[in-house]
Amino acid sequence: MPAPRANYHHGDLPNALVRTALRLIGRGGIAALSLREVAKRAGVSASAVYRHYADKEALLAAVAAEGFGRLNAAFVAALAAAPRQPRARLVALGQAYAAFALGHPEQYRLMFGNGRTDSRDERLVAEARQSFRHLEEAVAATLGRAADEPAVIAGAVAAWSLVHGYAMLRLDGRLDDLPPDRVPDISRVLDRLVTG
Amino acid sequence: MPAPRANYHHGDLPNALVRTALRLIGRGGIAALSLREVAKRAGVSASAVYRHYADKEALLAAVAAEGFGRLNAAFVAALAAAPRQPRARLVALGQAYAAFALGHPEQYRLMFGNGRTDSRDERLVAEARQSFRHLEEAVAATLGRAADEPAVIAGAVAAWSLVHGYAMLRLDGRLDDLPPDRVPDISRVLDRLVTG
DNA sequence: GCCGAATGTGAACGATGTCAACATAGGACT
DNA sequence: AGTCCTATGTTGACATCGTTCACATTCGGC
After folding, report:
1. What is the pTM (predicted TM-score) of this model?
2. For B56 and C23, how far is CA from C1' in angstroms?
3. HSE (side-chain half, CA atoms, 13 Å) at B48
4. Domain A1-53 is classified in which CATH homologous superfamily?
């Protein structure tokens, strides 16, 4: 539904492009996404995109930033619903993380895995940093230490690594060889880290 | 050095293409790699590639397979040099894994992260499976259980997730925000998993 | 109502992955 | 040795892609 618009001007092209890109990515994956297709679906010529994004990569960075925004929202929601016990809260974060990654595979892959972050996009940098801060706080609470202590940083990196690696392996189908009833879910994997 | 060849036939084009692709990837990254460039550097026309690989993705799958082969060789070497104690051997595997990933960033990214494995490449599938088996065995020895028990599978998945996630986060520059002296190295992260 | 800035258009360029038609080399069989 | 089949390589073409340039339209402030 390219939705022919009446006006010469679009109204909110930047957001419309991000939403369109997101929809197309969900259909055909990242590799199959073309700038021209996004523009056409948004009812606009290809070159119009360049009024709002420096290039294709910048548009994808905006999609990634939106993803980190949603991830952070999911974190906040998970923490609100979680019990008070620090360890349980950390596990809740990990579960929310994995649920997001497995629920939005292509966007998640855009947020990671496509080479380095596009540091031109300030929102992307800020939202990504915020995600890490959520993790750090939960680890700090679990260990009962200040957030900037080396042990806390190491713990947060370990937790992030575990959950990110698990998500990536599953998204890439790397665990599909396992008997389906043997693929451990994220809780089981998290237990290995949080407990001994 | 496109090395003009005397003969009409090349001799060992398939391997030459993989080696050339690997070299170019090391220079400019995966995204910048073009089939035509690989062919030119190998001293051959672009369409000659299609006599040996179904398409660009198939060639990249061959490069990935070669990577898994090298990873497995690194595993074997690490195990040969490691002490007898099961836990130390598991850590040695993790270190060898991280060293490979950080030492060959682009090839590692090709082995993972570019969507699902190209299952048309049998060698790729076999080598990847072998990598996981190494891990499984080390985890089984550490836990003192049989390799196909659910607890061992869960442990192997957890170990792989941790080390793969760590490598990916570092490759994507996601840990570059941290004060440089605070970026935990792989041993420190592994400790969190292997000990309590 | 005028005018500059913001936003959108269309045509064009070079590069890319892929394919079809053709050329050549090399080995098997006589 | 000569013949033919097949594997391998080449040339030229096509559609598509990201990107740019010159131009058109609209909007907001004066």
Report:
1. 0.93
2. 25
3. 19
4. Homeodomain-like (1.10.10.60)
